[in-house]
Amino acid sequence: MTQFTQNMIALNTLQIAGFVGFFIYIWIFAAVQFGAMNGNSAAYSLGNVLAASLVGLSLLEKFDLASALFIGSWILFGLCGLILRIRKPRIAANTNTSTHTH
Q1: Longest dimension (CA), the chain
Q2: DSSP string, 29-82
Q3: What is the distance, to the nearest Å, from the Cα of residue 78 to the centroid of all Cα atoms in its chain?
Q4: Own/partner pairs for 3-10, CB < 8 Å, 24+ apart?
Q5: pLDDT (tens digit per residue) in 36-69
């Protein structure tokens, strides 16, 4: 068995979470680059929060401050973007339904 195969078999739950998060990051990035996803969509923000959370879980095994700061910021801004995108249609609907008198 090769070293790579042994390492892949020996992965624990936290490492697998990190790999899944990585693949979500790459999938979302590629989707935006190839026009399959809008970078201003709630789906994009949600995907980034999910990916960052999974990668963040992998840091519980082997902590790295710079990575934790990056991941924490990514989650924070992703959640802010998600909230804004969820609220935006409501705000636009309220603006369109208001009555204007001239």
Answers
A1: 80
A2: HHHHHTTSS-TTSHHHHHHHHHHHHHHHHHTTTS--HHHHHHHHHHHHHHHHHH
A3: 7
A4: none
A5: 999 999 999 999 999 999 999 999 999 999 999 9
Phi-psi region of 33 (alpha: psi -120 to 50; beta: other; left: phi over 0): alpha
Q: Supply the pTM of this predicted model.
A: 0.77
Q: Fill in the amino acid letter for 27.
A: W
What number is the average pLDDT over the span 62-83?
95
What does the pLDDT read at residue 101? 53
User: Region 90-96: what's the mean pLDDT?
Assistant: 61
Q: Quick check: 79 and 101 in contact, CB under 8 A?
A: no
The closest of 31, 34, 53 to 43, measured between CA atoms, is: 31
Q: To which H or E segment does residue 7 belong?
A: helix 3-9
DSSP code at position 98: S
